[in-house]
Target: ADP-ribosyl cyclase/cyclic ADP-ribose hydrolase
Amino acid sequence: MASPSIEPPPPPWIYQVFLSFRGGDTRNNFVDHLYKELTIKGVYAFRDDSKLERGSSIAPALFQAIEDSRAAIVVLSPNYASSDWCLDELVKILECRESLGRMVVPVFHNVDPSDVEKERLLKEEMGMEMETETETEVEKKVKRWKEALSEVATISGWDSRYSMYREEAAFIEQIVRDISDKVMCAPSSDAGELVGMGSRLEEIDELLQLDTNIVRMVGIWGLSGIGKTTAARVMFDRHSRQFEASCFLTNVADKFRLHGESALQHELLSKTLLERDLRTWPLGKGCNLIKERLSQRKVLLVFDDVDDLQQVELLANKLNWFGPGSRIIVISQDKQLLEAHGVNVIYEAKCLEDDEALQLFSHYAFHQNQPKKDYWELSHGFVYYASGLPLALKVLGSFLYNKSTCQWQNELNKLEKFPNRKIQDVLKMSYDGLEELDKKVFLDLACFFNGENVDEVRDILDACGFFPERAFGVLIDNAIVTISNGKLYMHGLLQQLGREIVREEAEENGKRSRLWKPDDVYYVLAKGTVR
Model:
């Protein structure tokens, strides 16, 4: 009989607070003041400023924002329940409370909680305008609304009618203090991702030098899947409260190619200034606007997945664009790019040690810190295969969760010949970003020269006209190879990637560009099947 399923940890969130409110009651007064105080406190809140009529079908983006929020503040005002839209929001918020563990804080604004619980705020005609739905569907929806109102009324929250909060400002201050204490101490990262991060985070902390008032830019560099983004996200969550404004800009390279420079700059300013309706500006004026708006503000910025010098120049070309004490973290797999921009303080993300790797793998494979009794030897086999790469440990551990030892053994045997596609797809991005000549050198190193004497390899490749000195520099700067004690090394999974790329060139050995197994070489030469 299969063991009972263990629920995975809740997904990470993007916003710290989602504000649900009835615009006609509270926009331009209470909610505006609440939103402003949350912003001042450093709480990243989502507020829907849509001009759509409340009562029409709720926008899918709002449902997504609710799922992406750590907590929801539901401002229950006299007319809150007169809007289908508000009630649909409330149902979704309570669903996320149940399924994702999201926090819900009701604010009873000029209403009695007992009226909410008894659905007295719900108008008799609610749902009648839903002409496209059947009577049964309407009844079901109204029933859900009533249940949601009853449930939210029982959650501990804030009541504006209390005499101790006669002044609205004091009432809002108490709400903000309460919610900030709750969401600021709640990490958005999966706890498993923090395994082995302690000493690494301390190193990054030392490089950031947060106790100084200078503007400082720090790079995080390393192989794909090694945990660069995870480390930066933890640092961002840990320190963003110390800054007047903050922004974690993800997928910079993709956004730059898909949407252009203005979109990147617009997202940066929107998130740091917390203004959704920023005016557009002429192409080329974004840099001046960033300097103009942020030069007097202490900001924490993270730019993730930067692969072109122009991208970081558009976002943070000069340190004087930002106020005293600001910190900018640039994440890239290209060390030369960081140095070319003047980022001389660079943290090199490294693979996990064996004990750390086993703990991380166990977190995903068993939902505990060590393997189960009958899985120790198999676990060490997978950890050895992953060679300390966090991405591989997470992917493999998650895949193997709740599977039998027989299934584990079959998967381990399979990996020797057929690499995991999810892992390979991430690592292949490193290969795809290389120029053609550098790709050839990478494949040669993967097929023949991993762990070989660097001088001998250089001589061989030079004789082939591959300009190895330049290629080695590119591969080292992109964290694909290292040189240690006079020998060239690449991660075992990168070597497997290179050989898999060659295998996929053709089904027949003789039609492939490289052969490294003696039996394959003998067979091709003996049979005369070389292309």
In short: The two ends are 54 Å apart (CA to CA). The chain has a mean pLDDT of 84. The longest helix spans residues 135-153. The first strand starts at residue 15 and ends at 20.
